[in-house]
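Changelog excerpt

This revision adds worked examples to the README so contributors can see how folded entries look when concatenated. The first example is reproduced verbatim below.
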Amino acid sequence: MKIVMFGDSITDMRHSREEQGSVFSYGSGYVFFVAGELLSENFDKYEIVNRGISGNRIVDLYARIKADVWNLHPDVLSILIGVNDVWHEIDSQNGVESDRYERIYRTIIKETQEKLPDCKIILIEPFVLKGSATEEKYDRFIQVKEYAGKVKAIAKDFNLPFVSLQEKFDEASSRYGVSKYLYDGVHPDVAGAKFIADEWLKIFRTEIDVKNSEV
């Protein structure tokens, strides 16, 4: 079962494309923890491919979807994207408006289903907390929650599994502090990466890999 993780720096986390299958190919984020969990269960069954690129927005995912997803013929595609669509607008007026974000996201799903009809797709909710990178302009960063709502609606309309994260991060950070989970309000620290992986694995095992989870 080939699983492609598609997204921005939260997925990327400095992984190596040149050493696929090695420890360096997963990066230091949630993909690493997902790979560790699944490969420890069955090395022969799973192949996890990290296709995150730091700084990506939804338009960047669409631009490279053929090379980084369709050409790989994955059995499962997992997508996490959204924070940069807001962040780039704040920093350089080069973000992606929410309506355009939704339109392109829907196009990615539709075209992927046409190209790879047997591929299962998981959507991960984008998230943000008030941290060192977001606090000064948090009144604008909070728009990420609007984009998260778009992803949830897309998942519902296409009947796709949805990994909910924002409310869970809000709750966890209220107890232990934002930096314990997202070191700058956006990027996961060790606990945050494990948190994302655990939530992803719950959805994967209950909605995608059901037979294996029942063994």
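The second example, added in the same revision:
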Amino acid sequence: DILVASKNIAKRYSTGKDHIKGTTDIALTIFDSMKKVHGMGARERLLLQIAVQLHDCGKYISMADVAECSYRIIMATEIIGLSTEERKVIASAVRYNTTEFVYYGNYDDGPEIDRERYLLVAKLTAILRLANAMDRSHHGRLDDGKLQVKGNKLIISTSYAGNLALETMAVEDKADFFEEIFGIRPEIRQKRRV
């Protein structure tokens, strides 16, 4: 019911269906491949799914301030089955998807957010940013991507034969924050065809 409600909200604000589906699949693959690293469970996976569903809803109001508009839409919309704190986590992850992340000592999203929820926001933001970067072209070039943690790297292997310059640059742009949060650096590896 919660996912259906978030999909309806996304639909109401005209988000791109193909990009949302592709980004959701990638985000959940990242989440599932890193279970031993991030220590999150099923409820956090659901919050990530909702964050991905709603990460572009602010474009309906303003293309110049998508992050803030998305945050306000999520905070102003009741989603049955989610607490206000969970909505705040989702809204914050969506906000920091495209804006500079605010660190704990400078965090100004209200006095009620504790360190544990703040860390959850950071983890969801890192995964959302990476998933969004992996579908930067909105053409699903990394849909076949296999993810595997090897040492201090998250290897993204793909057999896509075309040009991945856009996705590679986008992933590299988000890699520092992802590595800061999880201690693992994402890296795209394109399988060579003979």
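Reviewer comment on example two: The helical segments are 2-12, 17-33, 35-38, 42-54, 66-76, 84-98, 115-134, 165-182. Strands lie at 146-150, 153-158, 185-190.
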